[in-house]
Amino acid sequence: MTQPRPIRTVRGVRDILPGETVRWQRVEAEARRVFEAHGYREIRLPLFERTELFARGIGETTDIVEKEMYTFQDRSGESLTLRPEATASLLRAYIEHGLHVQPKPVRLYTLGPMFRYERPQAGRYRQFHQINVEALGEAHPALDAEVIGMLMELFRALGLAERLALQVNSIGDEACRPAFRERLAAYLREHAGELCPECRGRIERNPLRVLDCKRPGCQPLIDKAPSILEALCPGCREHFERVRGYLDALGLAYRVNPRMVRGLDYYVRTTFEVLTEELGAQNALAGGGRYDGLIQALGGPPDPGIGFAIGVERVTLLLGAGPDGPLPTALLIPLGEAALTALLPLAQAARRHGVGVEVAYGRKLRGELERAHRLGVPYVVIVGEDELRADRATLRDMASGAQRAIPLDRLPEELAALGRPG
RNA sequence: GUGAGCGUAGCUCAACGGUUAGAGCACUGGACUGUGGCUCCAGGGGUUGAGGGUUCGAAUCCCUUCGCUCACCCCA
Questions:
Q1: CA spacing 20 to 30 A to A215: which of A18, A110, A250, A264?
Q2: In Å, what is the separation between the CA of A7 and the C1' of B54?
Q3: Given pLDDT bands bounded at 50, 70 and 90, which one contains residue A216?
Q4: pLDDT in tens, A348-402
Q5: CA of A337 to C1' of B36 (A)
Q6: In terms of Cα–Cα distance, which of A309, A322, A284 is closest to A122?
Q7: CATH topology (fold) of A18-176+232-319
Q8: Is residue A123's beta carbon less than 7 angstroms from any atom in nucleic acid strand B?
Q9: Which of chain B's bases lie under 7 Å from a protein CB?
């Protein structure tokens, strides 16, 4: 009989092992705490939707829709897609359930896996995880600042603030962007010869993208290109100035980057990114912006909206390795069958008192003590024939080696007291 | 989708084209019968990613393929 070959993970997909889940739990818990302190509530969304939702919501000509979606037909022949981002789904739910009748802004957050068919790389996976925030139905610039401020507050709470940089920009709206786009394209056409081939191709398709080019050769030209900020219409200009004023009032450090361009088609006015220099090419930890008009484009009310997405993998990469996670307070070591039978209900009782307890099976005392030491468990309880005769357990402090006898029936309470140090 | 680098034990890595592919860590057992951290000994573990080719002989050279990594691209 031959051993079957083990099956391995699919490319670009990975397991998050126990040593790492500790960090994930921390990120998620801090996010929930910070967001809920701002009045945001969780919404949970399906992992797949009708393909059309993403085509309409993200933009037919974006890279995501054109070549990165996991699209398949279900048994009824309908075209479905694993979500490549969360905003479209969230807005669909907002519209479908009439959440727009709630007091505005409607503040929501969600988290979970997204799927994009890309070549994996440091900080980039085919199944990756985002934490999303969306604030819907309110156009006030203070909401932009609230959302951005909340994002930075989360990074501060995670101890990452000093290693990150916040950039903000305004990319105008339908009133001013088309004209700017033409001006920029005209400028680029004039200097097409000095641009890299990729950028030359972008001049007509999406000239704003040229501004985002990282090739050194294109930089001088980009530096001298017309700035979107000078081309903003009065409405966008005022909105951006007020957003900046509120950011200043919040005491947030940021850089205005007039060349920041975001990859999704739906953004208007405020856009922002949180960047790091520690993760190689995948330097964006979070990004977002305002998307007034998108909800209507998806068949909903004419409500404005703003939101962001955080890349959880990238955040946990930055957090680095930490403690391996919560340990039980005590390892209970029974010596023999009678002791095991006596300890099982006591372990259960201790857990009901809220203390973490692990029971050892079958090994010699020496081996179990060694295991307890290596696990880092602070206390060990030994129950053998001697203890059973006296109706006692031996409690050992692993750090000091000190031992004392405690009555068996007092064991759960004693352990619970140890589990609440200080 | 494009390019480059790399695939040897669970992990980190050795092995000039030449005997039966090794070491450290980890794991299991013993020295030590109910007391951890140290030390010593022993043991389990490998289709050298896979397939083909060259050769008397391949972990080593060649081709193909898969995977990983990094970068382009894109973005979280």
A1: A264
A2: 33
A3: low
A4: 999 999 999 999 886 788 888 988 888 888 999 999 999 999 999 999 999 889 9
A5: 23
A6: A284
A7: BirA Bifunctional Protein; domain 2 (3.30.930)
A8: yes
A9: 1-3, 27-30, 32-37, 47, 66-76
CATH 3.40.50.800 domain residues, chain A: 330-418
A205 touches strand B (CB under 7 A): no
Q: Which nucleotide is the nearest neighbour of A339, by CA and C1'? A: B34
- Whether ipTM tops 0.90, in short, is no
A127 touches strand B (CB under 7 A): no
Quickly name the fold that domain A330-418 has: Rossmann fold (3.40.50)
- Say how far A95 CA is from B1 C1', in Å: 36
Residue nearest to nucleotide B32 (CA to C1'): A366
How do residues A293-328 score in pLDDT, each as one tens digit? 999 999 999 999 999 999 999 999 888 766 667 788
CATH 3.30.930.10-classified regions of chain A: 18-176+232-319
A363 CA vs B56 C1’ separation (Å) = 54
Between β-strands A330-334 and A379-383, what pairing exists: parallel, antiparallel or unpaired?
parallel
